[in-house]
């Protein structure tokens, strides 16, 4: 597992975050007060039920009139209904607040994740973030839905029962005094082991998600290298790790159940002994003692539920800690630097960057003047994509500096960066929604005429004409699944609408080998026209038209010049061009 995975939040961080989320809910304190009153009244009513049943026993003992039985039966039914209604209303208020907290927390986590630096997400592993935003949110929501009613009912019922028993006779307080340490030791033993085991289980689930995502996203590579069995074995091991850690976590619950059985036996035995003595001494009637024992019996339920939901509570808390671990330290917005209007100059000065112990690029010096197109070529793994990410500000160099308009790119605010930089790669995404919504992500106030012009510029106007509803055509996961070439054209259209001063294209026309190749190449030329551009070229004819060509090998720029200058040099570029020309 990656040591750079997103951290787990501490208890103090969880408390602060939950308190902050509660404050966001209008009049949350008043609603909690209402819930407190409702739940307290409901618990008191539920405690009255066994007391009324005890009074029925006394009526039977003295052979009371039938009307007395009818009256007390009516009271019993009314009290039971009132208790149920009040408790349900209290549960509703508490659940409503808790679900809103979860919803806000989910939104904050997704928003924070979208604002995180790309390298931080990649270093932690996208599977970890996906697991936290799906599995953990679902686990937390399920835990809250299951435990809030139980915990509320249990706590208030236990408190109300204790008060009621004390009002009958102080000796009944011996029961909680003697039994409480047993429950305490059981909970202490459970809480001493459960949190770590549940956290390990959630981490194993994240690792499983990462393995599955890697296999799905890299399926072409998996098939090309015939490593299906290796990937299957890795997923199998990750899945088995989830099973093992899940069993270990549940084992702690089994041990807790043994403690609870001992506590239940002790509680009932003491209640019967105290009740027998009180009746023998004529301190209480048989009915009063019966009511007290019935309260004790009813208390077993809340106590058992309270202890047993610790299993769910711990699982939910582990998920909550993982979610808060993402939002606890959100990226701080970079204020406007005051840099002048966009010019389109970019420069990398002595830039080096490493992934762990290995240098990806070393001592890179590149200057892109306004309106100039610089192409990078080289073998796979030469460092071209890393250079593109460094210029885009997606990576932070270990040494050297990256400047845009003579200003460090890391010091630019989001507004300033968007006005200057846009990066488009081979892997583009079509967002779910209408085509208009997809395009206006780049320019929210764009008119339909501007959208049509952008699509026409990237040669997607004919496709638009054949679309069923024009700009209102639903695309993406819930609509039309567009072809890769069209998806790339839509991405290029968004860049045109964004209108940045510098465009970074990381093999953005890799689909040019398929149908629609010429249209895609023309669209890329339109996007780079009159703009500064850094183009990671996968086709040498695309690089040949650039103002400057950089040849990279093993993380370093080994050749630099125009197309003709590099051919005359007779070096790596000359050999690449000769081989590529022969292949054509």
Automatic annotation (TrEMBL):
It is a multi-pass membrane protein. One of its GO terms (cellular component) is plasma membrane. Residues 346-579 form the ABC transporter domain. CDD domains: ABC_6TM_exporters. The chain crosses the membrane at residues 30-49, 69-94, 148-166, 172-191, 254-276, 282-299. PROSITE patterns: ABC_TM1F (PS50929), ABC_TRANSPORTER_2 (PS50893). InterPro entries: AAA+_ATPase (IPR003593), ABC1_TM_dom (IPR011527), ABC1_TM_sf (IPR036640), ABC_transporter-like_ATP-bd (IPR003439), P-loop_NTPase (IPR027417), Type_1_exporter (IPR039421). Gene3D superfamilies: ABC transporter type 1, transmembrane domain (1.20.1560.10), P-loop containing nucleotide triphosphate hydrolases (3.40.50.300). Residues 33-315 form the ABC transmembrane type-1 domain. This is ABC-type multidrug/protein/lipid transport system, ATPase component.
């Amino acid at each position: 597992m990656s040591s750079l995975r997103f951290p787990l939040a501490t208890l103090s961080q969880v408390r602060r975050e939950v308190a902050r989320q509660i404050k966001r809910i209008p009049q949350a304190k008043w609603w909690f007060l209402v819930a407190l009153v409702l739940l307290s009244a409901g618990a008191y009513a539920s405690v009255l039920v066994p007391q009324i049943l005890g009074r029925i026993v006394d009526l039977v003992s003295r052979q009371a009139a039938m009307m007395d039985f009818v009256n007390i039966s009516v009271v019993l039914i009314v009290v039971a209904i009132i208790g149920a209604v009040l408790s349900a209303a209290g549960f509703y208020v508490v659940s409503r607040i808790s679900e809103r907290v979860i919803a806000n927390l989910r939104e904050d986590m997704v928003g924070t994740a979208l604002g995180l630096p790309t390298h931080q997400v990649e270093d932690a592993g996208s599977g970890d973030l996906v697991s936290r935003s799906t599995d953990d949110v679902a686990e937390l929501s399920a835990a809250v839905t299951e435990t809030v009613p139980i915990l509320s009912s249990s706590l208030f019922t236990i408190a109300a029962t204790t008060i009621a028993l004390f009002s009958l006779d102080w000796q009944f307080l011996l029961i909680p005094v003697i039994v409480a340490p047993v429950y305490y030791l059981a909970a202490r033993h459970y809480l001493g082991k459960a949190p770590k085991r549940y956290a390990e289980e959630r981490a194993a689930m994240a690792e499983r998600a990462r393995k599955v995502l890697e296999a799905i996203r890299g399926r072409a590579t998996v098939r090309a290298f015939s490593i299906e069995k290796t990937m299957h074995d890795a997923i199998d091991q990750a899945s088995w790790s989830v099973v093992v850690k899940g069993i270990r976590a549940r084992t702690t619950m089994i041990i807790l159940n043994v403690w609870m059985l001992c506590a239940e036996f002790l509680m009932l035995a003491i209640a019967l002994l105290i009740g027998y003595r009180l009746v023998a001494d004529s301190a209480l009637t048989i009915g009063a003692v019966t009511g007290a024992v019935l309260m004790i019996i009813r208390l077993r339920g809340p106590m058992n539920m309270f202890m047993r939901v610790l299993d769910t509570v711990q699982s939910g808390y582990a998920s909550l800690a993982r979610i808060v671990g993402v939002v606890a330290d959100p990226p701080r917005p970079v204020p406007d630097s005051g840099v002048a209007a966009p010019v389109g100059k970019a420069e990398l000065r002595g830039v080096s960057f490493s992934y762990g112990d290995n240098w990806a690029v070393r001592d890179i010096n590149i200057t892109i003047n306004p309106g100039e197109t610089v192409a990078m070529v080289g073998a796979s793994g030469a460092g071209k994509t890393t250079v593109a990410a460094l210029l885009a500000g997606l990576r932070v160099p270990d040494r050297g500096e990256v400047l845009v308009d003579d200003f460090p790119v890391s010091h630019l605010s989001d507004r300033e960066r968007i006005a200057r930089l846009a990066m488009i790669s081979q892997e583009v995404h079509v967002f779910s929604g209408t085509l208009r919504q997809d395009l206006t992500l780049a320019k929210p106030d764009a008119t339909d005429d501007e959208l049509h012009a952008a699509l026409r510029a990237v040669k997607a106007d004919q496709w638009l004409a054949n679309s069923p509803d024009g700009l209102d055509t639903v695309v993406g996961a819930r609509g039309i699944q567009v072809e890769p070439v069209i998806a790339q054209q839509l991405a290029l259209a968004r860049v045109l609408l964004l209108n940045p001063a510098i465009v970074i294209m990381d093999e953005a026309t890799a689909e040019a080998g398929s149908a629609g190749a010429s249209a895609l190449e023309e669209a890329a030329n339109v996007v780079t026209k009159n703009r500064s551009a850094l183009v990671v070229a996968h086709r040498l004819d695309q690089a040949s038209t650039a103002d400057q060509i950089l040849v990279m090998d093993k993380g370093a720029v080994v050749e630099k010049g125009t197309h003709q200058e590099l051919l005359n040099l007779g070096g790596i570029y000359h050999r690449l061009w000769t081989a590529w020309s022969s292949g054509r």
